[in-house]
From TrEMBL:
Enzyme Commission number, as recorded: 1.14.11.55
Function: Involved in the biosynthesis of 5-hydroxyectoine, called compatible solute, which helps organisms to survive extreme osmotic stress by acting as a highly soluble organic osmolyte. Catalyzes the 2-oxoglutarate-dependent selective hydroxylation of L-ectoine to yield (4S,5S)-5-hydroxyectoine.
Cofactor(s) for this UniProt protein: Fe(2+)
InterPro entries the UniProt entry points to: EctD (IPR012774), Phytyl_CoA_dOase-like (IPR008775)
Protein family according to the UniProt entry: Belongs to the PhyH family. EctD subfamily.
Organism, as annotated: Nocardia goodfellowii
Catalytic activity: L-ectoine + 2-oxoglutarate + O2 = 5-hydroxyectoine + succinate + CO2
NCBIfam families cross-referenced by the UniProt entry: ectoine_ThpD
Superkingdom of this protein's organism: Bacteria
Protein name: Ectoine hydroxylase
Length: 296
């Protein structure tokens, strides 16, 4: 059964963004933890906005999925597929979206309780896949992702009502401090940072390569960093980071010889399904923002 219902669009927008005039930061009006935390690794999720899950994949599974993502990046049948995002400068594959529909191995993985269970625990409900993708950051010339809150984009461009969603980033390579590993600001998930400017039609075609609209200002970043500090997700392949949709995060370029890649899964609560975009002229494609709300 496929569920494709939407939330009442008359509900008040508690997170206005993409405005003509700058708006002040807003303290979060929704919980971070909606359920009952019983897993030790998730104990500080409400405070920090993230949790590290060590050894989520075994070395054998890391090898299996590394081969699988290499296959997808080099599949000639996907060369012109819109789900494959390439770097502007090098034309290298940056991301492959809707990977759970392109890979039977990933489809099997996301159905496992060890993968979706932490999301259910934090969100206090059944969950569905809002977005899935593989991120590639090759050595020497891998481009990073500028500081941003995922929820700001998902709210503005996809119509996600509240930040009742989490992302699970599963490392397929070792994450070192020097190879562009993800940085987060612990506790920043409790502050929503509105962004200035309007969303152009089909903005996703540009933003998936390099986002320039829907990003905080340097003063926003400086203020949050001074208040919360910055933590870096490092560790061996197979570990994972579960983080709140509104946490401020980003990654620097990778100029080392050590590539970095990950499977990226976004779980949204079935009680937080998408409405029409709050600050964009139209919906993004469903391979970026699913509107099939069937629970995992």
């Amino acid at each position: 059964m496929v569920l494709q219902h939407t939330v009442d669009t008359s509900l008040a927008d508690h997170y206005p963004t993409r405005t003509g005039e700058p708006l002040r930061h807003r303290e979060r009006v929704d919980p971070t933890v909606w359920g009952q935390i019983g897993t030790e690794a998730l104990a500080t999720f409400g405070t920090d906005g993230y949790a590290v899950l060590e050894d989520l994949l075994s070395p054998a599974e890391v090898a299996e999925f590394s081969a699988e993502i290499a296959r997808l990046a080099n599949d000639p049948a996907l060369a012109e597929d819109d789900r494959v995002i390439r770097e502007r400068s090098s034309n290298r594959v940056r991301s492959v979206f809707e990977v759970h529909k392109l890979s039977a191995a990933v489809a099997d993985l996301v159905r496992q309780t060890r993968i979706s269970g932490p999301a259910r625990e934090v969100l206090g409900s059944e969950v569905y896949l809002h977005q899935t993708r593989i991120n590639y950051m090759p050595g020497f010339r891998g481009n990073g992702f500028y500081w941003h809150s995922d929820f700001e984009t998902w709210h503005a461009e996809d119509g996600m009502p509240t930040p009742r969603a989490v992302s699970l980033s599963i490392a397929l390579t070792d994450n070192y401090p020097v190879n562009g590993s993800l940085m987060v600001m612990p506790g920043s998930h409790r502050t929503f940072v509105p962004c200035q400017g309007s969303t152009p039609p089909e903005h996703y075609r540009e933003s998936l390569q390099e986002q320039e609209i829907g990003v905080p200002t340097p003063s926003d970043i400086a203020m949050l960093a001074e208040r919360h500090g910055i933590t870096q997700f490092t560790g061996r392949a197979g570990s994972a980071l579960l983080f709140d949709s509104n946490i401020m995060h980003g990654s620097s370029n990778n100029i080392t010889p050590f590539p970095r890649s990950n499977i990226f899964l976004v779980f949204n609560s079935v009680e937080n399904t998408l409405v029409e975009p709050y600050a964009a002229p139209g919906r993004r494609p469903t391979y970026i923002a699913a509107r099939d709300f069937t629970p995992v």
